[in-house]
Structures are given as C-alpha cells and as structure tokens.
Amino acid sequence: IRANKGFILFMLLFGVFRTAVADWNPVPTGSMRPNLLEGDVVFVNRLAFNLKVPLTDVVLARLGEPEQGDVVTFSSPKDGTRLIKRVIAVPGDVVEMRNERLVINGKLAGLEMTGTVSEQVGASTTYTQALRLQETIGGKQRPILVMPQVAAVRNFGPVTVRADQCMMLGDNLDNSVD
To answer: Given this model, what pLDDT does residue 99 score?
Structure first.
C-alpha cells in the first residue's frame, strides 16, 4: 500500500470526481438519432441539478432544474440502466401525442420535413425508411426521426407531469423505448 499510495489516492479522487462533479457516458442505443449516435460519448455535468454525497445518490442541495430541450442522463426506473433522453416537459406541463405529434399545454408542436434516411430498426438487421423532421416545441427546435412503418405508440395522454418529475423522450421517436 505504501508503494502505491499516490495511485490509490488518485483512484479515490477520480471516483469522487466521476460521481460528484463530472462523468462521461457512451450513448448505448439509437434512441437519440439523429442528434446522438450509438457509441458517441456525452460529457455529463453532475452539478447541473444536484449536489450529491460522492459515491452515493444522496442529494445535499438542489442546484437547478431541467428545462425543456435539455439532454439528460438518468437511471431507468424499470431496470436501473443509464439512459440518455431529451426533456420534453417539466412539472405541471400537460403532454399528449396525437398521430405522433406532441401537444404540450395545448400547443401542437410544429413539424417540418427535412429529408429521408434509411434507419436500422432496433437491434435487428432490418432497415426501413425514416423521415427526418424538424420539430419545434416552445420556440426550441430539434431534429427528430419518425419511422411510419414501425409499430410504435403514436397517441397517448393527455398526461400532467407531476411535481419533481420531467417527461423525457428519445429524438428517434419510433425507435426508442420511452
């Protein structure tokens, strides 16, 4: 231990840094295409919203709130895996989807066709035609993909986002398990 105390201290500080200050996460799936691709690595500011006890999920203080359009990482409530999604609604927002168009607080998202592309469906080797669209929500624009041939949820809600929660969706609407 004496011979390696510098290395051990470095590893301890490195672990504290990654869990409390900043981290990086690889993008695991195509759910954020066309904006983030599988294998891309995103740098995560762990101090953007909360100050936590290092090496835990214990929150000491709230430092900020996610805003619509932010790309965030979080643990899946289903199985704990790390997810990367976009915040589409914040607490109090009423959200619904009608024929694959988001409606937030009664305002229909604008969609503009920008092209088509061949996209892989899930983890299969099957490809299908995807529509590239520019979606406008609350004055913010984001490129999204829609695959009309893929069975997906095209309608839901209206749902009111509860206090202390946000609603997230992948940018690849029909190829994201949201």
So the answer is: 87
